[in-house]
Design brief:
Two copies of one chain form a homodimer. With 434 residues, the first copy, chain A, is of the alpha/beta class. Chain A has a domain of 250 residues: Alpha-Beta Barrel (TIM Barrel), CATH 3.20.20. Chain A is 44% helix and 14% strand. In chain A, the strands form three sheets. In chain A, strands 5-6-7-8-9 form a five-stranded parallel beta sheet, covered by helices on one side. Chain A has a four-stranded mixed beta sheet with strand order 10-4-12-11, covered by helices on one side. In chain A, helix 11 links the parallel strand 5 and strand 6. The N and C termini of chain A lie far apart (45 Å). At the A-B interface, helix 1, helix 4, helix 5, helix 13 and helix 14 of A face helix 1, helix 4, helix 5, helix 13 and helix 14 of B. Chains A, B: Its EC number is 4.2.1.68. Chains A, B: Keywords: Lyase, Magnesium, Metal-binding. Chains A, B: Its cofactor is Mg(2+).
């Protein structure tokens, strides 16, 4: 038995705002941050579970406080008891303490904190099994996988029986797709050239570098002044040419009618999708925008806070691309429910990658989706953001615009001890020099 | 000028779980709590603004942490500068710091904290004007009131111009409705007999007392074992007779199909509405339930986290009664947007009252709604919960099942200093004796 003795939460922040990395119309100057959770165990081999939730700076201390408030629900429990019924564990952590549930429910700070803790449990489990998380999942039977999930509030759209049937459909051919991924990798796209705070010169330089590196799918931030958005779209199209894919991301800046009007002015640059055109809560608004803007696709999800919201986005035919966030949803269990819902409704999942540690998580999610859930790469692209990977013990590996299959055991976000020490807020050396 | 010098946040908790007051199927043992905010000013008269957000115990410390993280956005500002453009102030506090906005956006802990602070500003403003909040609002011109609001993400459903037109429609007859309220009060209903944790004997006793006090509208908690729910409904109907109104409240316990099946088994007791039949995020689910259960009404809102969600509940024809929460929505500014949306869509507003301080807030909201927004009492009932009022300096006054018009300046939630001291967690005397 591996007992989780102590839940440690660290406030880790990177001063990315100094270079305007990650800048967009809504988020002018983010400091990419993590509420970083370590599950310390009593195991002789010193194994520990690592998870994080992503924030953009101030307020990270509130998520740390939330992990501390939840810690007693996990401390003292055996990993083996948890993994024997992961679905029950998930329900218990997210809803078992009704006093804490009140603060969401299943949204905002308390759900972010749950995500970091739940993902740390998956990391611990996968490390104990000696497998990367995608493989831990891919090796499960459909029945075992579905037992990890909670279908509460989505059973009108997807039952456990339907989920098992979806997984069985892909099961006989899983090994073929693993082999394909090992040979070709999983296709990605880059956001690194398109941040709003970058100069024309920097954009052009980054585009050329990205093309040289093999990227063929690019994303631009919009939602500032529309003439500037047009001007930046023109620059990007000039650089990447007509064949490459250009996505646009408004980061929630527009009301419904504004989104339609502005995208009509950007349509000449042939955008593949418009991401977060309006409030992430506006399911019916996204449906309206999608209907009026077709064939431009609508993408959203990085701020979609739980499976109930995604269920409705699918039911309302409100989106073309599902951009779930690995640490805003309530950890991997809820991510898997959304993957299954997306497969049922035929919507490709293109997870959110703009943050520290998110690419490290999402490679497992997208590869598992291909191997065992959707069985398809059609319309799928995995976001890649070229920041901060050097802080992870086993960072993502990119080759010619594709993610390589990760082999390190765990869920991928274990940071180097020196990086944690240097970026602990406010006393780490990175903040002392500021 | 009145300068807000310091924002103080206190962790105030009442040990209500000891008596199972407030118990329901989802929330078995709540300790009614408040993140209590005091805006200390430099004014010679010592005026201060008081606001709170409601939680049910554990996790209140996280909301306190969130207020502390937001405090610097308010400290040093002049009340007069804020009230000169309340709409801009609201946008700034809820979204002006994009790093903090990331934690919601506009939901969960960070929005609860905003609510406490924003309501404290309204309290300070009303005290400065020497008026109760309902009157401060009722005395404004339509244009001045609408300038207090932020229509971001709802302009597709309601424009500022439409809001002004709605208010103008009622303006000429405001004084008549004020006079009516002073004479008759605002109709209420009681939840006090129906908590899930109460014995049959206690329920019968409380019903009889409530009938004697003049109550004619009652609410029962359901969502436990269906046979027990039926048994308790039978007891309540026996006590209150066929003429009184009986509402039912499931506190989010059911999936969509379960809600329909269970309410069909409770229909014989003639429920007026089913409240929170499923996840508060499930707009389309509520629409489905409403369609299948008519003529039983559907009510929800105490966990509806912002105006964007209410907008969609109205657009999707998902509810018959809007139960907005004065401290889960982002304070009074956002409450007013929802009142106007509800008026446009013809949905009666029956605010959530089950908590400490909520009745003190909502009397202002419902009376202002009647005076200046909807102009109607049809279908409106204001929840009353018979707990903890003794801790407020100017508690609600009830007469024969009706709320009396409050006259004390402010927004109503200023607590007695002794009550604050005794219930400060964990060092207050109420917690020492536990």
């Amino acid at each position: 038995m591996t007992i989780i003795q102590r839940v440690e939460a660290q406030d880790i922040r990177f001063p990315t705002s100094r270079e305007l990395d990650g800048s967009d119309a809504m988020n002018a100057a983010p400091d990419y941050s993590a509420t970083y959770v370590i599950l310390h165990t009593d195991a002789d081999d010193g194994i520990s579970g690592h998870g994080l939730t992503f924030t953009i700076g101030r307020g990270n201390e509130i998520c740390v406080a939330a992990v501390n408030s939840l810690a007693s629900r996990l401390e003292g429990r055996a990993l083996e008891e948890i993994t024997a019924d992961m679905g029950a564990f998930w329900r218990d952590l997210t809803s078992g303490d009704s006093q804490l549930r009140w603060l969401g429910p299943e949204k905002g700070v308390i759900h972010l904190a749950c995500a970091a803790m739940i993902n740390a449990v998956w990391d611990l489990w996968a490390k104990r099994e000696g497998k990367p998380v995608w493989q831990l999942l891919a090796d499960m039977t459909p029945e075992a996988l579905v037992q990890c999930l909670d279908f509460r509030f989505v059973s009108d759209a997807l039952t456990p029986e339907e989920a098992i049937a979806l997984l069985r459909r892909q099961a006989p051919t899983k090994a073929e797709r693993v082999a394909q991924l090992r040979e070709h990798g999983y296709p990605g796209y880059t956001t690194s050239a398109g941040w709003l705070g970058y100069s024309e010169e920097k954009m052009r330089k980054l585009c050329r570098e990205a093309l040289d590196e093999g990227w063929r799918h690019f994303k631009q931030k919009v939602g500032g002044d529309i003439e500037e958005d047009r001007s930046r779209a023109r620059i990007l199209r000039e650089e990447i040419g007509p064949e490459c894919t250009l996505m646009m991301d408004a980061n929630q800046m527009w009301d419904v009618d504004e989104a339609v009007a502005n995208m009509r002015r950007l349509a000449e640059f042939d955008p593949h999708w418009i991401e977060e055109p309006t409030s992430p809560d506006d399911i019916l608004g996204h449906a309206e925008i999608r209907h009026r803007l077709a064939p431009i696709g609508v993408a959203t999800g990085e701020h979609c806070h739980n499976r109930v919201m995604f269920k409705q986005l699918f039911q309302a035919e409100a989106l073309d691309f599902c951009q779930l966030d690995a640490a805003r949803l309530g950890g991997l269990n809820e991510v898997l429910v959304v993957l299954l819902l997306a497969a049922k409704y035929g919507i490709p999942v293109c997870p959110h990658g703009g943050g520290v540690g998110l690419c490290e998580y999402t490679q497992h999610i997208s590869m598992f989706d291909y191997i065992a859930v959707s069985g398809s790469l059609e319309g799928r692209l995995l976001e890649y953001v070229d920041h901060l990977h050097e802080h992870f013990e086993a960072p993502v590996q990119i080759h010619r615009g594709h993610y390589r299959v990760p082999d390190a055991p765990g869920y991928g976000v274990t940071m180097k001890a020196a990086s944690l020490a240097a970026h602990r807020y406010p006393d780490g050396s990175a903040w002392q020099s500021a």
